[in-house]
Amino acid sequence: MLFIKGVNVTSYYEIIEKSRKRKRKAAIIALILLASLVSGFFLILINNSKNSQEKTNANRQIKDINVPNTGSGSPRTMLAGFYELPSPGGPLPANETAGPLRVGGESNPVVSGFAHSELGASLAGLHLLERVRPYVGPSVFVPTIQTQMIGKGNDVQMYLEETKEIYSKTYNNVPNQPLAVSRTAEYVGYRVVAYSDLYAVVQYLLEFPAPQTQAESNTSTAAKFYGQEIAVLWKDSDWLLMAQTGGKLAPIMTDVDPNAFIRFK
Q: What is the pLDDT of residues 150-166, one digit of tens each?
C-alpha cells in the first residue's frame, strides 16, 4: 500500500477507477436505452406503415367494385359511408368499413368481410338473406347456405332442401344459374333488436313503392312498409346467418313502425 504525505494513494486510485467504471457503465446503459428507443420508434413506424397499407388495400378493394346505376335518372343518395352494391335481386346497401369487403365472382359467389359491430351484423344478415333465396339459383344459394349458414341439428340441411324444392317447382324450366328476378320491395332501414359479441338479432324495413296507376292502387296510393327479422352468429371472424328451427327464415312482419328503424339513406 502506497502513502504520500499521509494520503493512501492506492485507495485514491481505486476510488477513481470505480468512478470511471460507474461512468462507463452508465454510458453503456444510456446507449442501450437509446438503441431500444430508436428500435422501438422504427418498429412503430413500420407497424403504422403496414396498417396504413392494409387499410389502403381494403379501401382500394372496395373502390374497385363497380356499382352501376341500373335505374333511370340520378343515383339514389345514400348516407355518408354507404353505397349501393349490386346483388342478384337488386342493389343492397353496403358500407365502406362495415362491409362487405369481399364480393365473390361466378366461381365463388359468396360475400364476406363484415365488421364485428352492430352495423356489420346488420349488413351481413341482409346480404346473406338475399343470397339464400330460391330465385338467385343453386349456383349462389347452395354455396351460401353450405358455408355461411348455421343452425341446430339439421336446420341448415332442411332449409337447403326446401330452397332446392322451391327453385325446382318455380323455375323448373330455367337453367341452373342466377335468375333475372328483381325484388318488388326495397330494404330501406334496419334496427338491432339484440346484440352481443357472439350474436345479433336484426329487423329490416322493406318499402313497397306506391302504385303507379289507379288500377294498381285500388284504395291506397301510399307506399307500404313491412319487416323481416333474422339472427346472425359471429364465428371464424365473420357473421353467419342462423337458420330457424324447422328451416324457416325471415318471415314477413306486417305491423311495423317505419320511424323505429335506422335508414340507409
A: 998 889 999 999 999 98
